[in-house]
Structures are given as structure tokens and as C-alpha cells.
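**Backbone geometry record:**
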Amino acid sequence: MAKNSGKSSGAGTSTDKAGAGTPMTAKAAARMQSAAARNPASATARTGAASRAQSAAAKNAQK
């Protein structure tokens, strides 16, 4: 049995360090908002992740 290293294998999904992973883009934030609108009961919609993604994308666009 393999040990769990505690590291995420998804791109941009690391929760170990703030700012780690791929920067949020406006296009990616729009995909999240669209998914949340299609399924209001989803975790993306319920937790407000889509609005946080939009905020992050706006901040990244200023850089």
C-alpha cells in the first residue's frame, strides 16, 4: 500500500502554500462562474469559490 504524501496532484490545486500553483485567469474564473450558475447546489456555488476566483483573476490581471 502506498503512503499518502499529502500533496495534491492537480494543477493549481495546492493548499499547502498561499500563492502556489497556476495563477487564476479571467477565462478560468468565467468557467467557474458558469459552472456555479449551471448547478447552484455545487460546492463551487455554495462556497463562493467563483467570486473568489474572479477577484483573484482581477488581481492577477493588474500584475
